[in-house]
Amino acid sequence: AFAALAAQDVAGAAHAALIKAQLGDQLIGHIARDATEIQAREKPAKPQQPVVPPPPRKRGRPHKSDVCPPPVLTRIQRQLQGMSLNAMLADLPRACDVGSKTNSKGFKSSWIGYKLHLDVADGQIPISAVVTSASVHDSQVAIPLATLTAARVTSLYDLMDAAYCSP
């Protein structure tokens, strides 16, 4: 029963309807965006090995007549090129993973599990949330979260910490 409710995203749809009904016509001063860790008691997913290794390249500088393959776009570049919200959310990994974060004292802490990314309005009202793997960088979720929040409420500006600067 719980799996069916989770697959249909009943709670997410109810939350979106509640936010639109209560805050949809109001102007929100600012949206605070941050992520927090969710520890899980499961093994992290093993990384997928490429099926076919890339062909070996010649050593040294390439000749100017050689045609280089175009560089692979990063996730943020693909998001900026006009992906839909559903495609952006589907592109984010969701498997259990190992994550690390620098705490307020400057020490690095690691955990196994997931990461919860939240957009919170004035008065600590959660507007939108996305759960990803723990290893996902915060900046890769900023564009989908901003798109999701903009569809629900009208806000003046977004506040983010230094983790949302692109690496």
Descriptive report:
- GO terms for molecular function: DNA binding; transposase activity.
- One of its GO terms (biological process) is DNA transposition.
- Pfam families: DDE_Tnp_1 (PF01609).
- With 167 residues, this protein is α+β, with helices and mostly antiparallel strands.
- Strands 1, 2, 3, 4 and 5 form a 5-stranded mixed β-sheet that branches.
- The mean pLDDT is 88.
- It has one domain.
- It is 29% helix and 29% strand.
Give the arrangement of secondary structure elements.
Layout: H1 2-8, H2 10-23, E1 27-39, H3 75-80, H4 85-91, E2 97-102, E3 108-121, E4 125-133, H5 139-152, E5 154-160
Parallel strand pairs: 1-5
Antiparallel strand pairs: 1-3, 2-3, 3-4
GO molecular function: DNA binding; transposase activity
InterPro entries: Transposase_11
Domain Transposase IS4-like: 102-166
List keywords for this structure.
167 residues, five-stranded mixed β-sheet, transposase activity
| Average pLDDT number | 88
Give the overall shape, derived from the CA principal axes: globular
Contiguous helical run count: 5
Number of domains: 1
Helix content: 25-40%
Report the order of strands and helices: HHEHHEEEHE
What fraction of residues sit in β-strands? 25-35%
User: How far is the first residue's CA from the last residue's CA?
Assistant: 41 Å
For the sheet with most strands, the description reads: 5 strands, mixed
Helical/strand content category: alpha+beta
The count of β-strands is 5
Rg of Cα set: 20 Å
Spans of 5+ residues with little confidence (pLDDT < 50)? Answer: none
